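Subject: Sanity check before I submit

Could someone independently write out the structure tokens for this chain? I want to compare against mine line by line before I put it in a report. The sequence has 142 residues.
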Amino acid sequence: MSRRRFLATCLVILGAGALLPSSATADEKRFAVVSLYNQTKDVTVHFSYRWGSDNWQKFSNFSPGHSHWFAYPLDGSGKAPEFDIAINEAIGAAQAVNRNFSLVWHAAPDKGLQFGHKHAIRRDTSNRDYVTVENIGHADVR
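---
Independent answer below. Compare away.
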């Protein structure tokens, strides 16, 4: 291989490397993300949610088997407020039990179900007339 061809090949390789994004930008965390799953087989759930001291927002008709994600932009220090939900755990004619839950969020580079810390709404195992909210694990991506 001639010296000129070798230098040209090196320049092409260096140029291609310069076009690749740096790992710092690919891994930069921009959002706090919570993923919520309705893991009941037969209960449509209604609840309210909020980030920090923001106004409560209603979330209606969360059907069995469905999932939803919630996201909030991180501040310059990589922080976000708590994510809370307020839910009546009673199903049907059971006596109302209103509870608030603070859900864990995951710092992620983007918004979406796979980026959120996972929580599930499930029937209570000791009393099937109620549901509860459980922390079920880390995000699918790190």
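---
OP: Matches mine. For the report I'm noting this point. The mean pLDDT is 89.
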